Amino acid sequence: MNDSGPTRDEILRSIGLFVLTLVCVFWAYVRSHDLSLDAGGAWSAAQFACGLMSILLAHEMGHYLVARRHGFALSLPYFIPFPFFLGTFGAIIRLRSPPRTRTALLEMGAAGPICGFVVAVALMAIGLPQDVPQSLDQVLATVFSQLPATPVPERELPAFLEHALVALSQLIERVAPTPPNTFPLGIYHEPPVMDLLSWLSLDRLPGRYDTFSPLAEAGWFGCLLTAINLLPIGQLDGGHIANALSPKWAPKIVRPLIVLAFLAGVLVYPGWILWALLILALGAWTSLPVPEEPGLTPRAQFIAVLAVLTFGLCFVPQPIEIENVPLPDGVQAGPAEGQPPGENPS
Known about the structure:
By secondary structure, the protein is mainly alpha-helical.
């Protein structure tokens, strides 16, 4: 049953959370890139924050508008601010009515990632020409010049977050231990669409150690989040699409895929373990009930193909690679406070 639309309080709450999340993403970028809040640093952080939030907003509004058109009763998107890491945990939309048809479920699920993907592609097309080509020596010179001469006091974090970070770092160290006297340099691996855009606009592929511009980095994260959302698991967007395509088989592939995510976390990229744990903790592995009849319309089938293509253009098995670089003599391991390994080489 359709509802009467959002109330004034719901609209103000949604807008307020969006603005607060925008500020958190801005601040997280400043901290993670060790920027000073001068005009240059603020402009870089503002570009990234506005870019990433535009991707997330397009994603959520794609869900919302298509769901409303199909008669869903649902809440506005509520963004989740988080003052660490990326600055947000994304957003949630509460469904107040189940999907009436498989077509409605598929089109609602696919609209978000496809809309977000379009914005991410636009940002990468604008930002890629501003990327800075660098060699490994140039990256290391920048990183080591920013290492403090004396240890920097650690920032105090909430107890639950500190325990979670310790557990995660121990897990990552077990899966991919850091050799002694080396510096862990984080390397972003580009999704296929980013390589394609770079080849079209720059006539070359991004270099391994190139530094992303803020807009290109926002597009990179947009592709990563789009690919994760399109995994065919439970209540992820890809799970809705798989459930609409086959209500009988979609629930049966969830457990094998979660097991596969844990294996990929051990063998390929530890981050897959974190995502698998989040899916289990949030109960997102269960599928929404949807009637088997009527079947999908031709338009819904075409949209499903677009969603699969979007996933293929965004997915990277190992989004971030850790390259252990030997430390020069006399240099202590560990980046400066808030500095990620190697900034953001691609």
